[in-house]
Amino acid sequence: MDYDVKNLALAPQGRLKIEWAGRFMPVLASLKKKFASQKPLRGVRISACLHVTSETGNLMEALQLAGAEVRLTASNPLSTQDDVAAALVKYYRLPVFAIKGEDHKTYYRHLSSSLDHGPQITMDDGADLVSTVHSKRRPLLKGIIGGTEETTTGVIRLRSMAAKKVLFYPIIAVNDADTKHFFDNRYGTGQSTIDGILRATNILYAGLHLVIAGYGWCGRGVAMRARGAGAKVIICEVDPVRALEAVMDGFEVMPLEEAAALGDVFVTVTGDKNVITRRHFIKMRDGAIVANSGHFNVEIDIPALAALSRKKRKMRDYVEEYQLRGGKKIYLLGEGRLINLAAAEGHPAMVMDMSFANQAMSVLYLSRKGAALTKDVHPVPKEIDVEIARLKLKSMGIRIDTLTDEQKAYLAAWDEGT
Ligand SMILES: NC(=O)c1ccc[n+]([C@@H]2O[C@H](COP(=O)([O-])OP(=O)(O)OC[C@H]3O[C@@H](n4cnc5c(N)ncnc54)[C@H](O)[C@@H]3O)[C@@H](O)[C@H]2O)c1
To answer: Measured between alpha carbons, how far is residue 115 from residues 149, 272, 341 in Å?
Structure first.
């Protein structure tokens, strides 16, 4: 079997991690049970480009149980859990191409290897697979029915391809399902970003100024959890509505240029580029810590920080000290890559349960209906979204009310007034 992972001896530890995460993924477990008996994806070839974590291990198992032939590559050079990658190869016979810390060239070589079986479905987290197929592996296009996309940045890239009429197969925007971004982006990124910064630095949040650029789904979650840990949170936004929301949620809001002089810790979660740059570094305090949790490592202008610095040294794992001319020190975490996956373990399994149930059900939907879909970015069908919420509530032992027939008629009518 073709694969490239760090060390197969790590497999037993990875297997335990996958099993542990699986305990917290009841919705995916119910799908696994159904898939194992019905084999709805028998023989379907899938290439997946996702963070290689214990939760992804469970998604891969679900797809295999459904009968699919899956190959997996990482969606970020720093997010791979090497033990999980090894376990998937050794115990699940799943071809994995991912090594934590791989360089740019290896990352793209691995991505290409994951496509070598000629996929019918692609699964992406950031659209690198779709963009590789459309640029370097075009002969594969004719065999592909459709793909799924996990994250906000990927959906933005794919919508841009569709608008320019250069997207040649349909994509399901898993990110846009309510049971994905309401929970994964907010509570998942919120908690795990705080966790990643903590594991890298061991700082005390209580009383420090934490500046967050971007008050979208992820930013709201990071702000909520940072406040819970006692930090004084400052929000920087470009969207007036979101800025207003942050104000009314009780946060200080100001331009980044002002916040730069106040912050002890900075986190970017915008999906945008060059958000923290030279003019901000210049104003920062000595000892400021800078991290990113947005998808790509372009939110912090690292070349500008390097250009301002006279030397750089590694202080701890995932912490680099930049000493600026004049003596001030700024600490960059996780090379500016997603800090929750670089320095911690990414989102907790409880939240990935819903994201990956959406992925599994969207793959099934594509295998059945993909041929009839236009070459565009499509939403996850509403009934899938609602079913996932229903199953999650059930797994938590929570019951809710139902509408009476009279209420249904009332809510659909216009003629009853005062
Ligand atoms: N770390 C993770 O595990 C993880 C998980 C989910 C999503 N993401 C990524 O996080 C990023 C944000 O996702 P989201 O779902 O919150 O997106 P979103 O669109 O809901 O929010 C982004 C916010 O950033 C703001 N913004 C854009 N440019 C800005 C700038 N220059 N300064 C200040 N604010 C700016 C936007 O106005 C918007 O409110 C994306 O790249 C997404 O792919 C990461």
So the answer is: 16, 28, 24
Q: What are phi and psi of 72, to 5 degrees?
A: -125, 135
User: How many Å lie between the centroid of ligand 1 and the Cα of residue 215?
Assistant: 7
Lateral strand order in the sheet of 377-379? 96-97, 69-73, 45-49, 121-124, 146-149, 171-173, 377-379
DSSP string, 300-344: B-HHHHHHHEEEEEEEETTEEEEEETTS-EEEEEGGGSBHHHHTS
Answer for the pair 39, 114: CB distance below 8 angstroms, yes or no. no
Q: Which two tokens stand for residue 406?
A: 């009279």
Cα of 251 from ligand 1 centre, angstroms: 18
* CA 259 – ligand 1 centroid, Å: 18
Closest by CA to 126, choosing from 110, 108, 145, 148, is: 148
Nearest-CA residue for ligand 1 atom 39 is 216
d(C-alpha 26, C-alpha 28), whole Å: 5
Whether the CB-CB separation of 95 and 22 falls below 8 Å is answered with no
DSSP letter at 380 equals: P
pTM: 0.94
Residue nearest atom 5 of ligand 1, based on CA coordinates: 185
Q: Which residues contact 95 (CB under 8 A, 6 or more apart)?
A: 1, 2, 3, 71, 72, 89, 113, 114
Question: Which pairing describes strands 45-49 and 121-124: parallel, antiparallel, or unpaired?
Answer: parallel
Q: Which two tokens stand for residue 59?
A: 């998604």
What pLDDT was estimated at residue 404?
98
Probe target for ligand 1 pocket from 269, 276, 299, 352, with the most ligand atoms within 8 Å of CB: 269
Element (H, E) at 314: strand 309-316
Structure tokens at 304: 């500008």
Measured from the Cα of 274, ligand 1's closest atom is 31
The predicted pLDDT at position 192 comes to: 98
Residue 101 DSSP code: T
Mean pLDDT, the chain cut into blocks of 10 residues (418 residues total):
97 98 98 98 98 98 98 96 98 98 97 98 97 97 98 97 98 98 97 98 98 98 98 98 98 98 98 98 98 97 98 98 97 97 95 98 97 97 97 98 97 90
Closest approach atom of ligand 1 to CA 347: 3
**Predicted local distance difference test score (pLDDT) of residue 416:** 86
Place of tokens 């916040």: 259
